[in-house]
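Lecture 7 notes: from sequence to structure.

We start with a single chain of 224 residues. Read the sequence below before looking at the structure.
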Amino acid sequence: MEEVKRAFDGFADEYDAQREFVIPDLRQFYGTAVWAAEPVNTPPAILDLGAGTGLMSAFLLQKFPDARITLMDFSEQMLEVARKRFLGMNNIEYIVNDYRSAYPGGPYDIVCSALSIHHLETIEKKRLFQTIYDALVPGGMFVNADQAEGETPYFSARNREWWLDYIRSGSLSGSEEKDMLIQRSELDKNEKLSLQLQWLRDCGFVDVDVVYKNRTYIVTVSRR
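Now the structure, written as tokens:
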């Protein structure tokens, strides 16, 4: 994970600008995650894990403008971009910490994460799902907008080639930037969607479902 942290520290300022060129149908991807998020209480208490520059939280604030949101990330540089994004807002809290081991606080109505958990090892993902379950209020919801491995090697390869074609044919500034993104993707530790859904059920989550899937990109939702 230290290698992942260095990578994100190094491009914090460019992160948001790149998203449209890295994530196909980005607005539908994030928009579906926001649509899926339904709190027990209002205004909701929300934890954004691996929050980065606060992009997911920004989308959530459009739906829940009075929400109390805690952004947790191990990259101080990424959270510094988030602080600029939400400057002057007193309902936002920032925690610089590694969510694999940090106590998340709570309880929360919603725990969300976007494009972060796929960096973890298998055992770390399982532990994190249990931690998230424990941090939610009864009826609270976990929304994960992330990446998943294909269910078979055939589709893993096809999904990878689809994404590479998207990057290579996109509007990024040059081949060096595209090569950097492709190299950074090699740090990913994607898991099969079927496995992730089972791990959520094993933690005790109910109403476990997939509300969005576009090859590699998925949004899962589960309720305590």
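The beta strands are 45-49, 68-73, 92-96, 108-114, 136-147, 206-214, 217-223. Keep this in mind for problem set 3.
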